[in-house]
Amino acid sequence: MAEIVQQRIEDRIPELEQLERVGLFTKKEVKSIIKRVTALEYKLHRLIINKEDFIAYIQYEINVLELIKKRRAHIHYQFKREEIEYPIIHRINSIFKRATNKWKDDVQLWLSHVAFCKKWATKSQISKVFSAMLAIHPDKPALWIMGAKSELEDRNSSESARHLFLRALRFHPNNKKVYQELVSIKQTEHKPGEYEFSPEILSGKLAEVVYKDATGKIKEAGFVISLLNIAAIFDFTKDLQDSILQDLQTNYTDDSATWDFMAKRELEAPGAGEELQTAKGRASDINRREERCCQVYEEGVKSLNTEPMWTCYVAFLLERMKRKTNVQELKEKRQERLLGVLQRAHDCALLKEDYYKNWLQILLSSGDAEGATSVAMAATQLYSQSVTMWSLSLQTLMELGNRDIGRFFQDALTHINPKESLPLWQLQFEWSKANQSPEETEAILKRGLLSAVPAVAMEMKECYLDWSYSTGGYKKARKTFTSLQENRPLSKAFFTRMIQIEKEQENPKMNNLRDYYERVLQEFGTSDDDLWLQYIQEELGPLGQPENCGKIHWRAMKFLEGDSVERFISKYTLLQTGHL
């Protein structure tokens, strides 16, 4: 092993001598490099080798390269690269090769080699690395795509890129991304002459072959549309674009994506030149385009009466309505179209749940209280088990001041899963607090306390305490706390809120605070180190007795379990030194 290491160090001597001779490194720095690389070389020749040692060696060599680059710029010396940088780059490539041979499955290691080659090595070296990597990892389409793009972008070889994509398709015959990238390598938006394209590519024939092969294996409208969008980038694929459009309209009309795409194409139709001179004229032109889009969507829902089809239609109209315009007629027309389609989709029971919120917002903003009430009630019948829908509808009815809302809350809690009911309990409490008598609100809170769902019972307990304080002051809050402090499930927030209430009084009582801390620590004292620290801080405060802190600390150390002990010790030390 020592002989191999010694030989490798001796092989470096010429480049190190050159570094010193031309003034890039000092004699002392060269000695330091020799010492460091000797240690790194020995690590690479041990019986048991680690990947981290290879990475450390590579990083050290790259750091040397970067330093040489900076020194060259500083002293304006640009010669002897073949004798200085090239041996280092060759050595780094060799170390990478040894590492990837040993740890073949480490894709990140391979990609690190690729990144190094892109910055420092020759273009042919990148191809070699990709070739070796793909031989080991042919099952990863992303690597094939990277390799092909590298051939095109780093080596200006569209033919090599195409061959790599075709090889990728042997392993991944149904991969959409590979097909999409294969079509896109013919992009002509680059500067003239940047890449060399064959006549076969420039005529569009290759794209046609790829398209037929791809759609023969992947029969999805969305995929066909993605290929059409790529083809549309190029000025030599007009015939192919027409062919794809014909294919869509003939073979993919059972997919909402086709109708959506064809409808939106109507927006791109040329407009009348004279009309576009004024805002009103432009609005009129836009309105006609949107009408043509709607005609296509209408054909779509007639042919394909499904939720995805109606969703495409509604999404389009929503997007158009959100667009700003100062022409009132266009605003009103967009809203009219949208409301009509929302109603029809709802009547077919095919309106997506998410869109009811948009519908209700439009009705409320336009002052249609009757329409909003009707939609809110109908939505809960259609989505009777949806907490989101009930919350939305109840909020709408609350805003409209509906008299039967109390009954609707009961209906909601009857229909939905109790485990998901917390938002409705919270909403009902807020509504009752603002609109009902204290007795009715208290009845709701007491019903909530009896819930079999712990989250609901705990939340209602906290609400009950807060409500008692806000309506009846400290005495009522303390009475509520006393009556509920033994009723499980219990939350930490319930106790800390009572502590806060006590401290808000003009003359807070320390004995009461101690009682609250002792009670909460009975429940959470084994895991919550912060509670113990807060108790200690309370005793250190103006109301407390500092001599009690030692006993509380001793109890904390006895009760706390697991990681909470270490956290407590650390925070207590900070408290003692005045850093907490």
UniProtKB/TrEMBL annotation:
Superkingdom field: Eukaryota
Single Gene Ontology MF annotation: snoRNA binding
InterPro entries per the UniProt record, alphabetical: HAT, TPR-like_helical_dom_sf, Utp6, UTP6_C, UTP6_N
Keywords: Nucleus, Repeat, rRNA processing
Keyword Repeat: yes
Domain U3 small nucleolar RNA-associated protein 6 N-terminal: 9-91
GO biological process terms held by the UniProt record: maturation of SSU-rRNA from tricistronic rRNA transcript (SSU-rRNA, 5.8S rRNA, LSU-rRNA)
GO cellular component: Pwp2p-containing subcomplex of 90S preribosome; small-subunit processome
Domain U3 small nucleolar RNA-associated protein 6 homolog C-terminal residues, every copy: 291-560
Matches recorded under Gene3D superfamilies: Tetratricopeptide repeat domain
Localization: Nucleus, Nucleolus
UniProt family annotation: Belongs to the UTP6 family.
Name of the protein: UTP6 small subunit processome component
Organism listed in the record: Amphilophus citrinellus
